[in-house]
Amino acid sequence: MADEIRVLAPNALLGYGFPLESLEAGLRERPHVIGADGGSTDPGPYYLGSGTSFTGRESVKRDLGHLLRGAKAVEAPLIVGSCGGAGGEPHLAWVYEILRELAAEQQLALRVALIHAEQDAATVAAAHRAGKLSPLSGAPELDQQTIEDCSRIVAQMGYEPINAALSEGVDVILAGRACDVSVYAALPILRGADIALSIHAAKIIECGAYCATPGSATDSIIAKICDDHFVLKATNPARTVKAPSAAAHSLYEQQHPSRLVEPVGVVDVGAAEFREQPDGSLRVSGSRFTPAANYTVKLEGARRVGFRAVTVAGIRDPFAAANLEGCLAGARSRVEDAFGKPDQGAPYEIRPHVYGLKTNGGRTLVDADVCLVLDVIADTQERASEICSLARSTLLHHDYPGRISVGGNLALLFSPHDVAWGPVYEFAIYHVWELDDPLAPFPIEYVQL
Amino acid sequence: MSDPFLYELADIVRSKNAGPFLVTLDVFIRGEADYAHVKSSEVITKAAIAAAYGIDEDHVVGIYFWDPARAVKITLRRAVSSGAAGDDDVYGAAMHMPLMNLVISENGASRRAEPTEPGLARAAGEAARARGDGPTDAAP
Fold first, then answer.
1. How far apart are CA B45 and CA B29, in angstroms?
2. Where are the domains of chain B?
3. CB contact A43 to B (< 8 Å)
4. For testing the chain A interface, which of B11, B13, B14, B21 should be mutated: the one with the most A CBs within 10 Å?
5. How far apart are CA B130 and CA B127, in angstroms?
């Protein structure tokens, strides 16, 4: 490999933004690749299930536009992982459409690879029958029905499909759901860098300058991967990379502090040495790789469980707050009269989320406004909204012992009061899938723009 | 002086999803001696964490100490997976209160290796308890 492979991470997530000076400073380092992570499961199952992005279109387009220009200027490939947040087909298509607009606007000729990550239910069901799926810690056991009920299933690609596309000499890779690490570790590994160092560096920079001091998810960092160590440098001179914060980031959002589990194996960072450099960068060495016995990727599936309606209200009268439980019972009872019991016929759920109300030894303590968020889930949007409306109006006027404020119990926040919140999803699949071929579930499509 | 809360010994106490079904809590202890004390004391055990969070012990997936960062990592099973019906913290970012309010029992005067701002931290603790965030049975 070259003396060092330089990987630029402009920020933690495509669409979060970054200072243009930080990108420029990063480009002056002549990165061999620019990586941008587009997604996460953190925003929850809705975005995977519904096929929508949790980042805004204008924000993504602005970031992507700057990165595209920068990548062209230094002739480095640009890799976007987990396009559109959840990395399914609609998410990938959404980012591809933005890229096409930008290519036209910037009058760029681009060779693009689209790497698909959405899986059809039949493929997943076959893998399940063949005993190739196992639940990740905390995830439920799987059955055929659950697989069929999922609105969308994606698999997290390793670095191998990205490297297959890089080998074709593309300018831009838009990848569906991908391990965060794959986006940044792919090119160094392809060029022969040490796999443990590549993965460890990728894990630290996948949140941009979040690992720096002061940390920021909206600023840039560059990793320089050498033979027996790597160096992390914030491209914004206002930030340095210190040992504690970088070490801290090694274990961020990981189940285990020193084991980074990737499709290809485990990187143990327990014995890694973090040495601060005079120029504010950080030298890291000593991470070790152990190949996995079986190559596995993560599967994520979201299932729709109903539709939600929500109302938000303040409760300021301490007597009303102290009697909230009784009023809620009254509202439930009124809803049952009109719509039946929650677990009979068409099911529904009423969940009051009450903020700021504590009880101590049976006495209710109120020292500020209490906030009530009434969360209703039912089998259709219409029913959820109807039930929410009835529960809210009942609560507003419900009587309780000693009531002096007969004008109403709730300070309703908005008109209209209730919001049709849309479909509710849950993660029903969070499993590992044993693969014979790391490329097989991730077809690559090449396009000339 | 009375026993400190865990957050008084720490630079960072944070929680965050580790995937949709787990939440992971990270504590970075400020001083070497405090870290050694927390690591050697029997305060952070599966039983203590389960009690603080009101969950079954087998939902405490692991407790790991990581010396290079003076860190303790505790991984829990979520009662409700991220964003599913009934979840009220999608990112799992505000689940550290029961942990930060654990009381670390005194084992010797040498434990406080460097001066902290106990007055200030304690005042914040009082405020937290007055708000009802803190443990009701822990004397300050």
1. 16
2. 6-131
3. yes
4. B21
5. 5
pLDDT, mean of residues A164-177: 98
A163 pLDDT above the threshold of 80:
yes
The pair of three-digit structure tokens given for residue A437, joined into one six-digit string = 């071929």
For strands A78-81 and A172-175, give the pairing.
parallel
pLDDT tens readout for residues A417-431: 999 999 999 999 999
To the nearest whole Å, the CA of A271 is away from the closest chain B CA by 8
Picking from A159, A154, A193, the residue whose alpha carbon sits closest to that of residue A176 is A154
Cβ neighbors of A190 (< 8 A, separation 6 or more) are A159, A163, A166, A167
Task: Please count the residue pairs, one from chain A and one from chain B, whose beta carbons lie less than 8 angstroms apart.
Answer: 120
Residues 74-93 (B) with a CB less than 8 A from some CB of A: 75, 77-78, 81-88, 90-91
E strand spans, A317-396: 348-355, 358-360, 363-365, 370-378
What's the rounded Cα separation, in Å, for the pair A277 and A258? 23
What CA–CA distances, in Å, run from B117 to A392, A406, A436, B104, B124?
47, 49, 57, 16, 11
Distance (Å, whole) CA A352 – CA A112: 49
Provide long-range contacts, Cβ within 8 A and 24+ apart, for B108-113. B110/B33, B111/B33, B111/B34, B111/B37, B112/B31, B112/B33, B112/B34, B113/B31, B113/B32, B113/B33, B113/B34
Residue-wise pLDDT for A172-209, tens only, equals: 999 999 999 999 999 999 999 999 999 999 999 999 99
A342/B75 Cα distance (integer angstroms): 34
CB A175 within 8 A of CB A162: yes
Tokens standing for A239? Answer: 């930030």
Report the alpha-carbon distance of residue A269 to residue A286 in Å, rounded.
Answer: 7
Q: B5 forms bridges with which residues in the sheet?
A: B103
Domains parsed from chain A with CATH numbers: 5-117+157-293 (no CATH), 305-427 (3.30.70.600)
As a whole number of angstroms, the distance between CA B121 and CA A83 comes to: 43
Give pLDDT < 50 ranges for chain B. 108-140
Cis peptide before A416 (omega within 30 of 0): yes
Nearest to A23 by CA among A219, A224, A204: A219
Q: Estimate to the nearest angstrom the gap between the alpha carbon of A196 and the chain centroid.
A: 24
- Is-contact B13 B25, C-beta < 8 A? yes
Using CB atoms, pick whichever of A41, A250, A360 lies closest to residue B20: A41
Asked if ipTM goes beyond 0.85, one says yes
Round to whole Å and give the CA distance between A83 and A442: 14
Give exposure, B86-120, as e/b (b: 16+ Cβ within 10 Å). Answer: ebeebbbeebbbbbbbbbbeeeeeebbeeebeeee
Where b means 16+ CB within 10 Å and e means fewer, A203-219 reads bbbbbbbbbbbebbebb
Q: How far is B128 from chain A (nearest CA, A)?
A: 12
Residue B100 three-state SS: helix
Residues 6+ apart with CB under 8 A from B52: B98, B99, B101, B102, B135
C-alpha pair distances (Å), A410 with each of A58, A394, A395: 38, 10, 7
Which pLDDT does position A366 carry in this prediction? Answer: 63
Q: How many residues can be counted in chain A?
A: 449
